[in-house]
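User: My collaborator sent over this chain with a note saying "see what the structure looks like." That's all I know about it. Can you take a look?
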Amino acid sequence: MTNEEAYLLAAGKRPDWFVYPNGFARVVRQGILDLMPWHLMEAKAAREKARALAGRYPSRELFPFAYRQDNDDIACWGKGHGEQVLIIHDFASPGFELERVFPTFWDWFREAVEETIHWE
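Assistant: Without extra context I'll predict from the sequence alone. Here is the result:
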């Protein structure tokens, strides 16, 4: 199985409002899947996490793509948020789950690389 098959859901299997940003698809094709402490989610895990997030935060429509290994932060795209990346602190009380917003995937990716550099 290729990285694209493992990490990118086909159009009919992801939310109808969502299209992967080109940068995300490029990172997946290049095999940059782990930026410790961040890890990209395989497609199956992303779908399962999306269902779980919908149950905990019914006022949001989220599609996750990465998780942080040392806490409950999840990097997501959200319906109505364009290319912004929303950092959701999973299991927080509804209304308190949004930790941070990045304007684009590449902005999130730059921060993830910085965190990788400083991770010990």
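A starting point for your reply to your collaborator: The helical segments are 3-7, 22-29, 43-56, 105-118.
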